[in-house]
Design goal:
With 424 residues, the protein is an alpha+beta fold. It is 31% helix and 15% strand. It contains 13 helices and eleven strands. The strands form three sheets. A seven-stranded antiparallel beta sheet has the order 3-2-1-11-10-9-8, with helices on both faces. A two-stranded antiparallel ribbon has the order 4-7. The two termini are 15 Å apart. Residues 1-27 have low confidence and may be disordered.
Length: 424
């Protein structure tokens, strides 16, 4: 995940980018451009940045005038097989899943099945919720604005760790994947649908997002990128553990025994599958206890991080946050669209560095607002998406390399011609 400067610095430590600590890169100041579709010069700058930051593959999509206008593919999905990135290549959206899920939740609110101020415990109570009274006060709004007080993910080595807020909901800022997963379970309980079924009902099918899925799926694996790290010599290297593939294949075996596809599984089904799946033999997973498998941070079906997509399909979703006078009835209401892009959490010294809406980080622009989100999975799958309601332009950049964040910070201003705060 990445939304703010503090998160970005933390991510650099996790991705192995420390090998380049002595080669700090000054931000590239933007030059005005009429279109965000890269010309030959900007494409050359993009390729040079890929080499500089050892990013094997990049997918790019551009929105112009409120619609997907262009897609580009660069480099390799797997440096060992040299499989090329194409416009049909699937990337892990990572935390870009959060604004996508927020849209689904807001649609449920539009339908009257939830309200923004409903308490989560009134619908579903996780078994490992602490006894804190603060947990009882957490609402849908607190989750979507990261004001629950809950951690991002609990420590992986503490079996007794419960969901414990650090402050009263609404009294501070705490970016939390745990909170999103809890809200996912609430939505599963209300609708009786799995996460994938929810996304399919409210977005995949009506919006024509045919290349999206809410999990790793075996039939799509041939199109999905592999994650890469940067080794001690400063070169890109295929990551030893491709977690989604290792874990997903064992879960698929269970799905075949059950006669139920993973797309139909709710969170409880996933936990039940962990108890009966074939044990892992990968050195980093062998012997991992069931309680760790069942932690939301390891979930292959998570409203916080599991979306798989092409950059083009995510760009199509990005356009749904732009005003459309002829909006289809399946979309969220115009009032709700505006609310998602209205500041709910203000910047502060110990909170977000920029305003936060519902699921999005915000940057006020003359006549409108820019909205964005970043995503980090396993320090290898790094992506970002940004839209601007004033210009009705947008950009989605997805990578499969450990220094994708540094790459995007450099090329973002070059491609857009604007020094958006998201890029620094």
């Amino acid at each position: 995940m990445k939304n703010y400067a503090m998160n970005r610095r933390h991510a650099l430590k996790l991705t192995g980018a420390a090998a380049f600590a002595g080669a700090a890169v000054a931000p590239a100041f933007a030059a005005p451009v009429s279109s965000w579709i890269p010309d030959e010069e900007r494409e050359a700058a993009l390729r040079a940045a890929m080499r500089e930051f050892r990013v094997p593959g990049v997918g790019l999509a551009i929105v112009e005038d409120g619609a997907l206008a262009w897609e580009g593919a660069y480099g390799e999905a797997n440096i060992e097989t040299q499989a090329s990135i194409t416009n049909q290549t699937l990337f892990q959206a990572a935390s870009l899943t959060k604004p996508f899920f927020a849209y689904v939740v807001v649609k449920l609110v539009d339908e009257g099945r939830l309200s923004m101020d409903d308490r989560l415990v009134d619908f579903y109570r996780p078994h490992d919720l602490s006894a804190s009274e603060w947990n009882k006060a957490i609402t849908v709004r607190h989750v979507l604005t990261h004001q629950t007080g809950l951690p991002n993910w609990r420590a992986g080595d503490d079996e007794e760790a419960t969901l414990e807020p650090k402050f009263a909901p609404g009294d501070g800022y705490s970016y939390s994947g745990e909170a999103f997963h809890w809200l996912q379970q609430v939505c599963e309980t209300i609708t009786g649908l799995s996460l994938h079924q929810l996304a399919d009902k409210y977005l995949f099918t009506p919006a024509g997002l045919d290349d999206m899925a809410m999990s790793w799926l075996p039939e799509r694996d041939v199109r999905e990128v592999y994650g890469h790290i940067v080794d001690d010599d400063g070169e890109a290297k295929l990551a030893d553990l491709q977690f989604s593939r290792e874990h997903g294949r064992r879960l698929q075996e269970v799905a075949e025994r059950w006669g139920r596809p993973m797309t139909d599984w709710r969170s409880s089904d996933l936990n039940a599958a962990h108890a009966v799946m074939r044990p892992h033999d990968h050195p980093r997973l062998a012997g991992r206890p069931l309680w760790r498998m069942n932690r939301p941070g390891s979930a292959l079906m998570s409203s916080a991080s599991s979306l798989r997509t092409t950059p083009g399909d995510y760009a199509r979703f990005l356009t749904l946050m732009m005003k459309d006078d002829d909006a289809a009835p399946w979309r969220i209401s115009e009032r709700s669209r505006k609310t998602m892009l209205t500041t709910q959490t203000k910047p502060s010294d110990d909170g977000p560095k920029r305003p936060v809406g519902l699921g999005w980080s915000l940057e006020p622009r003359r006549g409108g607002v820019a909205y964005d989100h970043w995503g980090f999975n396993a320090g290898q799958h790094i992506s970002m998406a940004l839209g601007d309601t004033t210009s009705r332009k947008g950009i989605v950049i997805m990578t499969n390399g450990a220094q994708g964040n540094r790459f995007m910070d450099k090329v973002g201003p070059i491609l857009t011609g604007i020094d958006y705060r998201s890029f620094f």
